[in-house]
Amino acid sequence: MDGSARAGQDRAKDFDKKTMTTHILPPASPFPTSFGLIGILRRWDWPTVAVMVLCAGGFALALTLPAGWGLFSWPLLVLALTLHSSLSHEMLHGHPFNSHRASTVIGLFQPGLFVPYLRFRALHLAHHRDADLTDPYDDPESNYLDPAVWDRMGPVARAVLGVNNTLLGRMALGPLIGMGTFLWGDLRRMARGEREVALHWVAHLPGVVVTLWLVGLSAMPLWAYLAACYAALSVLRIRTFLEHQAHEKARGRSVIIEDRGLLAFLFLNNNYHAVHHMHPSVAWYRLPAIYRARKARFLWMNRGYVFRSYGEVFGRYLLRRKDPVAHPLWQGPRK
């Protein structure tokens, strides 16, 4: 290998190390330090604040519309709950207030009911250890199972999980399977004496009470509200369905979906998932431009794991399994 080629590889390795680093804390504010209200407001991420206002408005409108408007209010509620989940993801990464305390206070109110913000934050930040992506044990968001666990399963469980690995199955069954696994895991942790998990759930309860009180004041039946919460989780399963794949290299495990439509907005551009994992502190609205500026580099980094749109994803995988349930490259200890 000649010197120029070796130098090019060295530069690529340096880029790889830099971009694959997970920065949990948000970057320093670009504005000079200043005191008082003006200084605080200048540090806010205003595009994200605007989306928060839009989301709150949609949620409020869905619950204040009179009876008989269900064909409009219920889909609006699903959209608002989906968007709120994406905003919660932004908050745990430091947006829009660049304040851990402010994000926590606001994030504790989860109108989607099923996932406490503090549990989501703890598990998601653990998920950002890129070396563990897709690991059946160490990645809290992995959809793969240890092959030994898969081998011990009966035919009914295997059939259900096989259907769950199609996009339609993931949308229909995924919230139930995912929440059941999540709740069972947290109950086991609390039984083992993990007080932090219990505290996360306790902190979640006041927001649940407030949400149910607001629903009680509205014309929307409780069953319809709970169905909307489930439907929002179903929409979110479109994003998580293939955002990671099994790959020998960590940088090849995160997808890019070049979509700029409604789903991309509801997911706050998390469809540029490889870009997000390389730059987790970057705000959602900057991800597309970063991708376009270095598209060839990102596609080289993630080994070409890319789709043109969510339409392509639906066309390929609505009724077809994308992955095996058992991790195809698992080399860890069997449990």
Automatic annotation (TrEMBL):
The enzyme's main class, written as a single word, is: oxidoreductase
What's the Enzyme Commission number for this chain?
Answer: 1.14.19.-
Keyword Transmembrane helix present in the record's keywords: the answer is yes
The superkingdom listed in its UniProt entry is Bacteria
Known InterPro entries for this protein? FA_desaturase_dom
Keywords for the protein's UniProt record, in alphabetical order: Membrane, Oxidoreductase, Transmembrane, Transmembrane helix
Gene Ontology MF, one = oxidoreductase activity
Entry keyword annotation includes Membrane: yes
Q: Which residues form the Fatty acid desaturase domain?
A: 72-305
The transmembrane segments are 49-72, 167-185, 197-216, 222-242
Protein name in UniProt: Fatty acid desaturase
Per the UniProt record, the source organism is: Sulfitobacter sediminis
